[in-house]
Specification:
By secondary structure, this protein is mainly alpha-helical. Helix 3 packs antiparallel against helix 5. The longest helix has 16 residues. The structure holds protoporphyrin IX containing FE and 2-acetamido-2-deoxy-beta-D-glucopyranose (NAG).
């Protein structure tokens, strides 16, 4: 005890000031799962609790949070650019074609942000890291695998609406275009097939599967007929009617792959993974071996989460995820 106080007394006040400031401003170059262990040990348990309650209230919210991280990472890297609201200076990604009237769960991110401010004492957790952790916790809450999330991303000071229109794959794509889209992000066909397994949870709107259920030939007839009941042939009132992406859309299981084998993929892009191309064997593997799917999904999520993060002194830690500081 005595030696401790002597040592403390010798510390220059400036050193103490820097040490205390360090509690609120941490900057390191590489992502690591332990990033918040000292600067805010309550960060991860806090996020987990909020995600659990959001998913308990509405299972689909878990799917929406998982998709949000994907749409963040594919556009200028995992930098929370997707969360910025429209302003005269910001062309929000929320209005990009794949996101407009589709992306959801922004309110859950707001809730996490303000609760973290409270438990950490200052804004230390980046919005980009919040997206990565809420995605993982959502998968776990819906019965899927857990993985260690590398952390330490920082947030962008800009949004990239035009890039969002280009970089996020479309549900009308064929396999070669899907492969290219993932390749542009440094992801291979194993990542493509495993990450597409995210469609084991959540829902899609009529407007994105209409051509599939009325025009595709590689679709189970009774499956197509039943979807047509809730999704009219012509553009109009039923455009935003929902269908589950797989029949067990609140459980993170392998039903997505079983559907593909049975020509019951909901999106044209889903079924494209099982049409005789290079991805067909992987679909069969994940259909018959959930552990192989879980292992690869976790691995590919880490890989996706590592797409061009801002680190060190790049970017910023936004105090409000919807606005630049
Ligand atoms: C492979 C290319 C992909 C395409 C073409 C695609 C396309 C889509 C489309 C069109 C929807 C429905 C949106 C709506 O109707 O509002 C959707 C939903 C969803 N996507 Fe994807 N997606 C792809 C990959 C991924 C990946 C890699 C993930 C995550 C790792 C993901 C996670 C989800 C989830 C969880 C939903 C349901 C969201 C909800 O219910 O709110 N998708 N996707
Ligand atoms: C987004 O959707 C709204 C309808 O809710 C529409 O008025 C608007 O034009 C869309 N924005 C873009 C950029 O397409």
């Amino acid at each position: 005890m005595a030696s401790f106080s002597v040592k403390t007394a010798k510390l220059h006040p400036l050193v103490l000031l820097v040490a205390i400031a360090g509690l609120c401003f941490a900057a390191k170059g590489q992502l690591t799962p332990s990033f918040y262990d000292h600067i805010c040990p309550q960060a991860l348990p806090t996020i987990k609790a909020i995600v659990q309650s959001a998913v308990y209230n509405e299972p689909r919210m878990g799917a929406s949070l998982l998709r949000m991280h994907f749409h963040d990472c594919f556009v200028h890297g995992c930098d929370a650019s997707v969360l910025l609201d429209q302003t005269p200076a910001i062309n929000s990604e929320k209005f990009a074609r794949p996101n407009n009237n589709s992306l959801r769960s922004f309110e859950v991110i707001d809730r996490v942000g303000s609760q973290l401010d409270r438990v950490c004492g200052c804004p230390v957790v980046s919005c980009a890291d919040i997206l990565a952790v809420t995605a993982r916790d959502s998968v776990v809450a819906l019965g899927g695998p857990w993985w260690n999330v590398p952390l330490g991303r920082r947030d962008s000071a800009d949004a990239y609406q035009a890039l969002a229109n280009l970089a996020i794959p479309s549900p009308f794509m064929e396999l070669p275009a899907l492969i290219d889209s993932f390749k542009d992000q440094g992801l291979d066909i194993i990542d493509l097939v495993a990450l597409s397994g995210a469609h084991t949870i959540g829902s899609a709107q009529c407007r994105v599967f209409r051509p599939r259920i009325y025009s595709d030939t590689n679709i189970d007839t009774s499956f197509a007929n039943s979807l047509q009941q809730n999704c009219a042939r012509s553009v109009g009132q039923t455009d935003s009617n929902l269908a589950p992406l797989d029949p067990t859309s609140a459980r993170f299981d392998t039903m997505y792959y079983k559907n593909l084998v049975n020509q019951k993929g909901l999106l044209h892009s889903d079924q494209a993974l099982f049409g005789g191309g290079s991805t067909e064997e992987l679909v069969k593997t994940y259909n018959s071996d959930y552990q192989a799917f879980w292992r690869q999904f976790a691995k590919s999520m880490v890989k996706m989460g590592n797409i061009k993060p801002l680190t060190g002194y790049d970017g910023q830690i936004r105090t409000n995820c919807r606005r630049v500081n």
